[in-house]
Write a structure and sequence with these properties.
This protein has 314 residues and is mainly alpha-helical. The protein is built from 15 helices and 3 strands. Helix 1 packs across helix 4 and helix 6 packs across helix 10.
């Protein structure tokens, strides 16, 4: 390890960055150095600018990844290399307003119905019924399940903050069945070896395989279950601030995203065409002797997200 890398890591640790964030930042700086074949100490503003342009134009870098790359390089130059303000004029990409993918309640039921492995079912059920992030889910310990208080302790979630998630009776029953069969000791969901949690990729791979088995064509990730958790609570009439606390969001503005995902209020809005015509264009029931001419057979109209498998799930 070079002295510069060691000092950079130490500077990040002094700011109490999470180990996973430090790993991402170090990788970003290493990629930057490899691109020019030189130490960052010998590179400056124009090199950083050229590299970021390359990432956007040639690599199709997303806004989120761009922000991470820029933050990693800013910390390197402003703190570790002692050149404060050198990269301040580099712009941040405009915010992308993309709605995440959400499973319907019926799709969640189908997903769980095809999940025969009890460990996999418990993993997915905790993610969906408690709304945990993947990193939080992976690092759950057996002792974090508190059946007396009906809570799940989340250690050092996003922003290095502890919080409590809810534990519902149905989830507790499933976790007890899981524990009796698998007897996990330290980690609630251990990986290949009992002393280590699942790796980052495994839960997502399990979920995608089960979605294909359940006939769910949406592009999903483990975070999709968290989005679905929040959306379904909102559609059930749960107060937005309660959802904020359950999700561990620092700002209500972040939680407000789910007001755009809830479809119940949209469906309840009247048809402007019907209002203008002064009548209902859709009969309550079709005549017994003849089906409407414009009736579409079930299953012939794909939903938007099923048709668009490239929809990213943030």
């Amino acid at each position: 390890m070079t002295p510069l890398r060691r000092r950079y890591i130490e500077d990040l640790q002094l700011k109490h960055f999470a180990p996973s964030t430090i790993k991402v930042y170090v990788h970003a700086v290493a990629s930057f150095a490899r691109y020019f074949g030189k130490s960052p100490e010998k590179l400056g503003f124009e090199h950083v600018r050229k590299y970021l342009v390359y990432l956007i134009q040639d690599c199709g870098l997303s806004r989120g990844t761009y922000i991470v790359q820029l933050a990693a390089l800013r910390h390197l130059y402003h703190v570790t290399l002692g050149r404060p303000g050198q990269l301040d004029t580099l712009p941040v990409k405009n915010r992308e307003h993309k709605l995440p993918v959400v499973l319907s309640q019926d799709e969640v039921r189908r997903l769980l119905s095809v999940t025969t492995n009890l460990k996999h079912k418990a993993l997915l059920m905790v993610a969906y019924d408690s709304g945990l992030r993947l990193s939080e889910l992976r690092h759950l310990r057996v002792e974090d399940i508190d059946s007396k208080r009906m809570t799940i302790r989340v250690r050092l979630g996003k922003g290095q903050k502890d919080r409590y998630a809810r534990l519902t009776p149905a989830l507790l029953k499933l976790l007890r069945q899981y524990w009796l069969e698998y007897r996990p000791q330290t980690w609630l969901f251990p990986g290949e070896t009992p002393d280590k949690p699942y790796d980052m990729a495994t839960p997502g791979q399990i979920l995608k395989k089960l979605c294909r088995k359940a006939g769910i064509r949406k592009r999903v990730s483990m975070h999709t279950l968290r989005h679905s958790f929040a959306t379904h609570l909102l559609e059930a009439g749960t107060n937005l601030r309660i959802i904020q606390q359950l999700l561990g969001h620092g700002s209500l503005r972040t939680t407000a995203l789910y007001t755009h995902l809830s479809l119940d209020d949209l469906r309840a809005a009247p048809s402007t065409m019907e209002l203008a015509m002064g009548l209902s264009l859709i009969p309550d029931e079709a005549p017994d002797d003849k089906a409407p001419d414009d009736k579409v057979p079930d299953g012939k109209v794909p939903d938007d997200e099923a048709a668009d498998e490239e929809e990213p799930s943030s």
